[in-house]
Amino acid sequence: MQEGTMELMWRTSHVSGGNAHYVEALYEQYLVDPSEVPDEWRNYFDQLPRPEGAPSHDVPLSPIRDQFYQLAQNRRGPAAGPADSGENKKQVKVLQLINAYRFRGHQRADIDPLGLRSPTPIPDLELSFHQLTDADMETSFQTGSLFLGKDQAPLKEIVEVLEQTYCRSIGCEFMHIVNTDEKRWLQQRFESVRSKPDYSVDVRKHILERLTAAEGLESYLASKYPGTKRFGLEGGETFIPMVDEIIQRTGNYGTKEVVIGMAHRGRLNLLVNLLGKSPSELIDEFDGKKVIQQGSGDVKYHQGFSSNVMTEGGEVHLALAFNPSHLEIVSPVVEGSVRARQDRRDDSEGAKVLPVVVHGDAAFAGQGVVMETFQMSQTRGYKTGGTVHIVINNQVGFTTSRPDDARSTEYCTDIAKMVQAPIFHVNGDDPEAVIHATQVAVDYRYQFNKDVVIDLVCYRKRGHNEADEPSGTQPLMYQKIKSHKSSRELYVASLVQQGMISEDEASAMVEKYREDLVAGNHVANALVKQPNTELFVDWTPYLGHEWTGDADTSIDMTRMQRLAAKMCEVPEGIEVQRQVAKIYEDRRKMAAGDLAVNWGFGETLAYATLLDEGHPIRLTGQDTGRGTFSHRHAVVHNQKDGSTYVPLEYIKEGQPNFTIRDSFLSEEAALAFEYGYSTTTPNALIIWEAQFGDFANGAQVVIDQFISSGETKWGRLCGLTMLLPHGYEGQGPEHSSARLERFLQLCAEHNMQVCMPTTPAQIFHLLRRQVIRPLRKPLVIMSPKSLLRHKEATSTLEDLANGRFEMVLPDQGKRDAESVKRVVLCSGKVYYDLASYRAENGNDDVAIVRLEQIYPFPKEELYEVFKTYPNLEQVVWCQEEPLNQGAWYQSQHHMRLVADMVKEGLGRDLKFAGRPASAAPASGYMSVHVEQQRQLVEDAITG
């Protein structure tokens, strides 16, 4: 067996990782008395070299054997340890006990401030389980890898250290981590200080000051606005010193930005006490004054905010993401915003921008998007260098408090183990433990670039909101809460007892904070009043633009052909798969004008021209590299070694990033990520492509709460583009419709664009328009499937070079306009079926007009086309979708209006041609599909 293979075997073997200490202990016992270990282990150890000398075999030592050989060589002799074999057996048991505390000490930890946590018997932590007794407490044993500061200690001291470290106010879960370096690092951080560092008086006073601010704001609002919803932080006030510590410590790492996502609980407190929102502005919101001048606005506990604060490491920009009531959906939005900021800073390690996501305990356990967000955390297209997750654990979700109703796991945080994130459960009534857990969490994130979770176990003093009466559903919990002192009161008592502060000093903090609130002064003590604007994203060029559908997207022919040739270059040495090679050869012919332009060429050339003009591009989704329907092939796979080459990354020297990634199999988190990315990168083309258009309904919350309404609720601009393959091909209900009707139902106030382009030139100009025009609106494209290779769905190079995106495409036939009696208005690929039927049957009095942009509805452009037919008698709307779906119900009033502008009464008689109303989007039987398609086309042309 090769050395490299053996090394891999050692790292992945059952004798490594979390089991290493146990196996080492077994081996020590085996060296004393082989009969004392199980047969299978004795047989295993019998094959290892004896410690008296070097191994007798001639082959190189395997890493496994070398590990045990070194253990044997370094093992202390009889003089350093107990003399008899019985004591040696106990030595092994002590090492097992140490490991048991690391694995299960958190289950005994005092992490619940209310003391409601049901004690669970932990046999592994009992001396008797390891065949130890009280009589062994004074006996000295080897401490193994325990960070005790000495090699030997009495068992009494070892147990005391383990209890202090793992069973007090912090419950550490990290032994599920495979990486030994990470585990050893975490053991050292907690064991070396017994999970309780000795903080200076200044640090403790600062903790108290932040606790006072947290409690002070809630008390003030409770007295001024009793019963008004604010989702207060009472019971979890240590959240404020925790986030304060994250910000300050992050600044010491040289971080420039911190992006925070959180739901309702404690949001107002964070805004005022850490981000520096003016208390007077908050009071205005409570008084119902309108502070947003445009749009619908949103409730105060959904609002975002940004500011700059000063840390010892320099100025840090803070951004709190806007968040709807869908409790966890903001998590991937934050990750997308952070990745965009990191990409802008060329920060591939995540050293300069930190994501912090705050969760509720019930939502963290219950919402599937949490899993999706963890799953993306280490992937190429979505990683951000690790996220600090904070769970404000109220121990109740709305009114659900029984764990066997709320989840199937022991802790609400168990989902984080899927990515081997360490989890620190910490008692919210122990502020110093909270700070220590926070410091370790931040340091871990920067040391290992991975996610970490702080589970702040606390309670909510009031109900789900301040209008609720919680004792109706949680009587015992709220009896306890009524008599329970606040975290600040408990901490003041502790500091006074230690002589670190007087009662008068503590009272003075309360008075000072109250005076500042009443005066409307800023109470975020690190706020920068004149921030460094270089830390901001400049949206100025994109603000204040009225809707326009026009933009100059033309391009010089010579330059376009040069770029087209460049995007088809594949270096020598890369063996291209046969069909892909044919695609690239055809594209070279298209670039030379020898072949008509197809969809893949038009789309890819749009990207090349935008890159050449300085616009970054990010394209993600399931199978985007190839394209689900094999039309794109922007990523070339070398058939020799599996390596990849992306021609669009090499358009010119110094070009902006072209990022194309096949995503993990997610819609909700993946789309939310791209939304967050696009709201932070105004000059880029950001595209999310669904594998099939209807799969987007797995991300419906993102579409409803962010994409369609983010601008009107929060003034948040977004230029995200969605490619949703759509079209009836006889492939059944779930592979037909992108649910066009749902998007149109969400359209109002020019909030987004919905388009259904039908030619390569149209997609070319549509994608270019999205970036070149300074207007930033989400773009939903019902992209095709069969049209990707349809022999009629082609364009010329001149169409690309000299054209623009046409919101309405007039009839392409050379017929006499005066002879036209009927206009068939349609969108999408049904046009080609209509045109084919008309040509076969000679219906020269029928004109077919394509509506390429469905919203905003292009009334003026459609009117200009309609009025060219002076003898028009009838207008028909034709769609492939059933009557109750597609564009009919949401757009017919626009069509009628335009028709009536041409001829009074024409709109009233507007006809529908399409499939009958249906509960499912399409038939699953090809024969039925074909008959329906034939009938709707015939109805449109002749019916």
UniProtKB/TrEMBL annotation:
Record GO terms (molecular function): oxoglutarate dehydrogenase (succinyl-transferring) activity; thiamine pyrophosphate binding
Record protein name field: 2-oxoglutarate dehydrogenase E1 component
Keyword check for Acyltransferase: no
Alphabetized Pfam families for the sequence: 2-oxogl_dehyd_N, E1_dh, OxoGdeHyase_C, Transket_pyr
The organism's place on the tree of life at top rank: Bacteria
Record keywords, A-Z: Glycolysis, Oxidoreductase, Thiamine pyrophosphate
Source organism of this protein record: Chromohalobacter israelensis (strain ATCC BAA-138 / DSM 3043 / CIP 106854 / NCIMB 13768 / 1H11)
EC number: 1.2.4.2
Domain Transketolase-like pyrimidine-binding: 597-790
